[in-house]
Amino acid sequence: FRWFIAERARRLSVTGWIANGDDGRTVELLAEGNDNALRKLETAMRQGPPSAVIESAEVEYSDALDEHDRFRIVR
Predict the structure, then answer these.
(1) Are strands 71-73 and 15-20 parallel, antiparallel or unpaired?
(2) Per residue in 10-69, pLDDT tens?
(3) H or E element, residue 8
(4) Residues facing residue 20 across a β-bridge
(5) Strands across the sheet with 27-32, in order?
(6) CA-CA distance, 14 to 69, in Å (whole number)?
(7) How far apart are CA 2 and CA 27, in angstroms?
(8) Is 46 a catalytic site residue?
(9) From the candidates 20, 25, 39, 72, which is the catalytic residue?
(10) Catalytic site residue 36?
C-alpha cells in the first residue's frame, strides 16, 4: 500500500510522507500539494491497490507548511 501511494503522490507532484502506524495495521500519511492533486491522492488512498483491504480512512485538511521537497516512505 505504501509503495502504491508513494508512486501516486510522486506522479501528482505531491510532497510529504507515508508510514506504517505503530499498531502494524494502520498507515499514516502527510501530503502537501494543490487541491486537485490532494483530492486525487485521497481517492487513490481510499481505493488502494487491488491487494489492499481498506477498512476506513480519516482525512483532515489544513494549511500546508511547505516542509517537504519530495514524497517519502519513512517506515
Answers:
(1) parallel
(2) 999 999 999 999 998 899 999 999 999 999 999 999 999 999 999 999 999 898 888 999
(3) helix 2-11
(4) 27
(5) 27-32, 15-20, 71-73
(6) 9
(7) 8
(8) no
(9) 20
(10) no
